[in-house]
Amino acid sequence: MASDSRHRPVETVETAFDIVDVVKAADGARITEIAAELELAKSTVHRHAKTLEARGLLVQEGDTYRISTWFLDYGIHVRNRHRLYDVARPKVDELAAETDEKVWCVIEEHGVGVHIYGAQGRHSVKTHARIGQRTHLHQFAAGKAILAHLPDERIERILDDYGLSAQTDRTITDRDELREHLETIRERGYAFNREESVIGVHAVGAPVRNESGTAIGAISVAGPANRLRGDLMTEDLPDLLLGATNEVEVNLAHS
Amino acid sequence: MASDSRHRPVETVETAFDIVDVVKAADGARITEIAAELELAKSTVHRHAKTLEARGLLVQEGDTYRISTWFLDYGIHVRNRHRLYDVARPKVDELAAETDEKVWCVIEEHGVGVHIYGAQGRHSVKTHARIGQRTHLHQFAAGKAILAHLPDERIERILDDYGLSAQTDRTITDRDELREHLETIRERGYAFNREESVIGVHAVGAPVRNESGTAIGAISVAGPANRLRGDLMTEDLPDLLLGATNEVEVNLAHS
DNA sequence: CGGACCGTTCGAATAGCGGGAACAGGCTTT
DNA sequence: AAAGCCTGTTCCCGCTATTCGAACGGTCCG
Which nucleotides of chain C have an atom under 7 angstroms from any protein CB? Predict the structure, then answer.
């Protein structure tokens, strides 16, 4: 498990995914457009596009290529096979019904938080998150709950790798401040997010840990700042959340 | 738009996706396992795996590699950007609430049907379909509804490409029989599925067409055969469905 | 009618992919 | 303990397959 050994990547594969990324970002792109963006010969891009299209990974509409629904198949497969999904999903639905707010299940992967499932109550606001979204762990409640319950060396490594970019002016960007913050989260067992990712939005997040105590994901409740405050925010929601994550942890251990 | 011109695929990219496919199918695989399966040298697989892992597309857990949630990000992106999704989604939810059965939104891509969104009523059975699932168009109600409303040359081409494989003993496998069947669907505007994809499951599907009358997708209602029969199946559900698809078509035209 | 742009095809040169052999480490077996 | 066998990993070399640029054949626009 060598960490950062000098490994030479397969460049052809990289360009293939570069093309996919450009097509994704542009929400459909043409051959010359892609070639210009990536500074490749048109013929090269053409051959790649045709290869990906033959595999069904890109779809050609006229002269523009789009990403195909094969990625949806792959993605849903990943989600369904994840240990947390089956167990956490019903709990997330339950919490959404009880709190009438937006509830998310987030997992950690490669040092970032990934939203794998969300449910909303009747009166919940539409958050800006969506399924599959990747967010730096220090920027939101669920992420901080996860980060606080990782081994120290992993925490430091993640901070080294991604830094502490700000999402709003409330986002924690100072490393020492974050370390203290994480210590507090570790002590009480859950995390708050007060407009640190979206202005006007508060959230509470609690970690889901495995047998050895390491976080593998988290569940969070998010809602408008003027509704999530006072005892509801500091007492009631944490209680609900901890009850849910505790149950999830038990179910995880017996599956 | 040359159809089947002699184009040489980029083989390196193909092997990369072969590896991804093996990892997906095996639900996590090790280097030697993949190498054996694809008859490649261990060193080759290793280099590819490390490349994909560096890009975040594979995740390494110990010595086994898994597909990462990046595919979820790509996949959800594809779905959200699809014209039909935003428009059809609320209608699908509505139909599920009204009928108390499983309702699916299916789109056509590359000649196959892709389930992009599903909603279920309280009493609906769990169908065997899942988001992202790809099904041959002749095998189910939504697919037949789409197939019937494609240009003739596309229909023939799709049948040529994929054949008429059976899912149950009721699946239509005779080409002439299917042609007649499609003609009937075209006349009345919607399709039935009586245990043609899953034994014990019936369904009704209606196409969503664009301005020129070509189907771009379909919506279907599915449920147990003993519940979906008689006038409910032949009158009420088709009415509901046509009302919904009609509305979707109008909304599509004005977006 | 002509120019400018597109996607597409072709051939040729070389960069980089793939393979095999050797290494290091962990686990089981003797 | 130690020998054996299985990993994943690294290295380097040869040959193939990728890349590029130029030329072709469309189509759209002026």
Answer: 5-11, 16-22
